[in-house]
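Task card 7
Instruction: Convert sequence to C-alpha cells.
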Amino acid sequence: MKTLIVMRHGKAMPSVEGQPDIERCLTEAGVTALEARLPHMLRLLEVKGENAQIWTSPAKRAQQTAELLGKALKANNIAFEKKAKAHECLWEQDVDAFLAELYASEANLIFAVGHVPFVEDVVDVLTGSTPSFSTGGLGCMKVFFADENPQDSTAQDSARLLWFAQGPIAADWETLSQLQAEITEVAEAIEQQREAFFADPQDIETIHHFRTNTRALRSLVAFIKPWQNAKQNAKTQAILKELVGYTSRLRELDVLEKQARSGDDSSPNLLALCKKKASAERAKVLKALKSKKATRAFEQAMAQAKNIRWKKRYVRYGLPRHEVQLRFDSLASSVKADLEQLNLSDAEHTHEVRKRAKRVRYVAERCKSILGADDLSIIESMKAYQDTLGDVCDARVNIQLINELLRRDLPKSVAWELALMRAQNETFLYSALKAYEA
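Output:
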C-alpha cells in the first residue's frame, strides 16, 4: 500500500513563439500563490514516520513547483528525500509507465508533480473519480496492489481517493504582483530623476518630473493602504509628503516665472527677478534633498516602495481584482460627488478636491492592467478637472507670491509689471468664479 499525491504544476507563463514548451516557467504570481497556500493545503496530509519522495516532470514549471512543494513539506515537518526525481513518464503523460514505476518504487509516500490531463487520468484510472485539477491542485490516494494479499485470487489493484484540494487562484496574487510592479516602476523613475536633478539643478523639467512622480507614488501608496502593512504604509506616506513639501515652493515660483515669460511685454528686469527667486529656491531644494536626513528618508521610502509588506491575510489568500476595482470606484465616485458640489470660492476645498482628482488620475494611469476598460475614460475626465482647478489654484498662488514680492523694495517699473500680472490673475479668477456660478 502506498500513499500517492498527484499535483498539477502551478500557474505558468504563456507560450512564446520559438520557446520549447518544456522551458516555460511559473509566473511570479504562480510562485507566490503556491508559497502562500501549499503549507496550508498539506495539513490535510496525515503521515507519521514516512519518508516521502517527490517525482516531477522534467518541465521547468513542474520542477519549480516540486521545489516549492519541498519547502512546504519542510514547513509541515514531513521528511522527504531532498532531491526531486525527474520522471519522463510525467512529461510524456504515460499513465501505464507511471503506474509501473509506482509499483516498483520502495517509497510508501510519493508526490508526483505533472500536467493535465495526466494527473486527472491517474485519479480516474485508479479510483474512477474524475476531479478537474486547476493549477496547483492536489489529489491524495491510498493505492493497494493485488500482490499485497497473494492468497486472495480475486484481488485487483485499486485505490481510494482520500481528499482533493483545488489549487490557489493565482490571479489573486497576480493583483498584488501588478500593484508592486507599478509602484516599483514609479520609485525607480523617481530615483533616476533625483540623480538627474543633482547632476543638473537648473533643468526645470527634471525637478518637475521628480515632483510629479513623487506625488504619483504617494497616491499609489495611499491607494493600497487597506492591503499594505499599516506601519509601513504610514511611514512611506509621511516620507513622501515631506519630499513633496521640499519642492512645493519651487513649483509655485516656476509657475510664476512661466507666466512672466509668457507676457510679450515682460521686461528683462522682471524676468531676471522671477528667475532669481526660482533659482534661489532651487538651490534650497538641492541642499535639502542632499542632506543626510533627506537622503536617509528618501532611500528608506524607495526601499519600502520596492518591497511592500502586504497584510498577512492578503499574503495568504491573495487580493481579488474586484476588491481593487471597488476601492477605485469608491474613490472616483467620491471625487465626482465633490466636483459636482464644489464651490470655487472656497480656496482650501478647491485645492483639496484638485489633489484628490490628481490621485484618482494617477491610480487610473498606473493600474490600467487591473482596472476595467470602462474606467480608463476617467483618466481624461480627471485630467480635465485637474487642469481647470489647477489654473484656478495657480492664479491664487500667483497673487500671493506677487503680493510678497511687492512688499520688497523693487524698481517702480518691475513693481508696476507685477501689479499688472496680479490684475491679470485676479481677472482670470473672477471670470472662473462667475462662469462656475452660471
